[in-house]
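Fill in residues.
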């Protein structure tokens, strides 16, 4: 990485400062930089960085807050491949199970990341809180006479996604 940084010209000036950090530490710095936290010295902080591919967790101890925030890592950062991409993969598995052959006939452009359908699923993921029963309607034009009407509304042309599905 150092070679790539040097070749890019970053760090060639005395005004440049280059350092690297772990993903959870970078997440903590980004959050604390936004402000709005009443941090005190001698407090513990748990950082959970839920990304697209992984979820990384680390614990930090605030050693000082003025004039600059200083903290030290208490636990080694741990991560798992259970981020948004893993959730999407499980969602595709659910679709394949519930839709059967109708799922196999779908155009990739209709269900790929960034499609209208997946944008609706992203919104469902972001509003899912595990509390109570919610229902989301995800627009998808499919053909299939054998599709479960509890999972697909033919008239509205949409998948019916319930909290228990998530």
């Amino acid at each position: 990485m150092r070679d790539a940084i040097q070749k890019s010209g970053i760090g060639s000036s005395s005004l440049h400062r280059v350092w690297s950090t772990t993903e959870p530490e970078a997440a903590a710095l980004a959050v604390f930089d936004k402000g709005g936290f009443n941090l005190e010295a001698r407090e513990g902080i748990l950082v959970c960085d839920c990304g697209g591919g992984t979820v990384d967790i680390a614990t930090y101890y605030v050693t000082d807050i003025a004039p600059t925030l200083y903290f030290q890592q208490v636990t080694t950062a741990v991560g798992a491949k259970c981020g948004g991409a893993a959730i999407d993969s499980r969602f595709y598995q659910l679709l394949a199970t519930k839709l059967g052959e109708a799922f196999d006939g779908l155009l990739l452009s209709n269900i790929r990341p960034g499609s209208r359908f997946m944008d609706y699923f992203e919104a469902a993921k972001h509003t899912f809180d595990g509390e109570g029963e919610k229902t989301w309607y995800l627009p998808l034009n499919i053909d299939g006479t054998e599709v479960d009407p509890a999972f697909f509304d033919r008239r509205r042309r949409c998948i019916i996604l319930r909290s228990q599905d998530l």
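The longest strand covers residues 55-64.
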